[in-house]
Amino acid sequence: MPVTLPAHLPAVETLGAENVFVMNKLQAQAQDIRPLKIGIVNLMPTKIETETQILRMLSNTPLQVEIILLQMRSYKPKNIAKEHLDAFYQTFDDVKNSSLDGLIITGAPVETLPFAKVDYWDELCEIMEWSKTHVYSTMHICWGAQAGLFYHYGVEKFPLKTKISGVFPHRVVIPTCLLTRGFDDPFFAPHSRYTGVNAEDVKKAGLVVVSESDEVGLYIAASKNRRQVFVTGHPEYDKHTLDIEYRRDITKGLAVRPPVNYYPGNNPDNPPEMRWRSHAHLLFANWLNYYVYQETPYNLASLL
Q1: Where along the chain do its domains lie?
Q2: Is 142 a catalytic residue?
Q3: What pLDDT sits at residue 4?
Q4: Residues 36 and 296 sit within 8 Å (Cβ to Cβ)
Q5: Which end of the chain is more exposed for a tag (fewer CB within 10 A), N or C?
Q6: How far is Cα 291 from Cα 83, in angstroms, rounded to an integer?
Q7: Quick check: 294 and 181 in contact, CB under 8 A?
Q8: How far, in Å, CA of 287 to CA of 179, rounded?
Q9: CB of 144 within 8 A of CB of 155?
């Protein structure tokens, strides 16, 4: 089954060219089922690219998914046209009196700032508090994971000596966890961040460590009731996203190293290889199926 999207969202054309099944709302309404309502709090500056990446992941499932794109009312992004936001995005005020089956909170390029110094921190806290009673399961990605771990469980992030950038091998810590069902061991996942969280702190907070890496530490953690999921990497990234980030940083004059395990021979002159596509699709499909669809109530009002 497809992801249900507004007719003119840029992702529709991109995904259609990839033979990804999407449909508009009129087609969806003709089907006698209740679609899953999934909100995406898109904090990334590359709004359209991030929309497309996450929608590509959510489309790999037999479930019909209705998407609600959310922006922050307290922050005006500089890298996206206001017309795009006005056409396709809502704010928290528009949805706070309703409920969602699932919510995704993306990463953001603010990880070196203290949480309280982030322009929209108070609003994001409001959304995360609301999610505890109005959303069945929330997936937090990269900085979104760090923000969620801090807000919900008091787990602090810490600065890294150098930026983690690259594609790293990971292992599944709990083989019976449905979130990682079907994963290879090892499996690969991309990371791009300046800060991290300690797996032992996560365990002390009562969370389950689902996956980690000897090289970059914690990857996936979850609450025991499956209502909160934290992914410290960027499984949604496209093949060329790390390359774009690396060349952007070089242009800015930053002292960054090429992403690890990404270019053949670790040579940036070579086209990058994508080794995380299968695990990324599985992660989002497993979350939708086992952590949302099979657990969420048919009547979302009963979440209240």
Answers
A1: 3-161+194-239+274-298
A2: yes
A3: 62
A4: yes
A5: C
A6: 34
A7: no
A8: 6
A9: no
Catalytic entry in 84, 142, 245, 279? 142
Pairing of strands 36-41, 157-172: unpaired
User: Among 136, 43, 44, 47, which Cα is nearest to 85's?
Assistant: 47
Secondary structure of 160-186 as H, E, C letters: EEEEEEEEEEEEECCCCCHHHCCCCCC
CA 238/CA 231 separation, integer angstroms: 16
pLDDT per residue, tens digit, the chain (304 aa), is 456 667 667 776 776 676 555 555 544 444 446 789 999 999 999 999 999 999 999 987 878 899 999 999 988 888 888 899 999 999 999 999 999 999 999 999 999 999 999 999 999 999 999 999 999 999 999 999 999 999 999 999 999 999 999 999 999 999 999 999 999 989 999 999 999 999 999 999 999 999 999 999 999 999 999 999 999 999 999 999 999 999 999 999 988 899 999 999 999 999 999 999 999 999 999 999 999 998 888 888 877 6
Tokens matching residue 116: 């309280």
Q: How many CB atoms lie within 10 A of CB 166?
A: 22
Distance CA 296, CA 292 (A): 5
Q: Which of 51, 123, 236, 245 is catalytic?
A: 236
Q: Is 51 a catalytic residue?
A: no
Phi-psi region of 5 (alpha: psi -120 to 50; beta: other; left: phi over 0): beta
Q: What is the DSSP letter of 5?
A: -
Whether residue 234 lies in the annotated active site = yes
Supply 195's token pair: 């800060």
Report whether CATH 3.40.50.880 matches the domain 3-161+194-239+274-298: yes
Given the residues 152, 234, 279, 281, the one annotated as active site: 234
Q: Which amino acid is at 91?
A: T
Burial class (CB in 10 A: 0-12, 13-18, 19+), 110: middle
pTM strictly above 0.85:
yes
Dig out the tokens for 120 from the structure.
């929209």
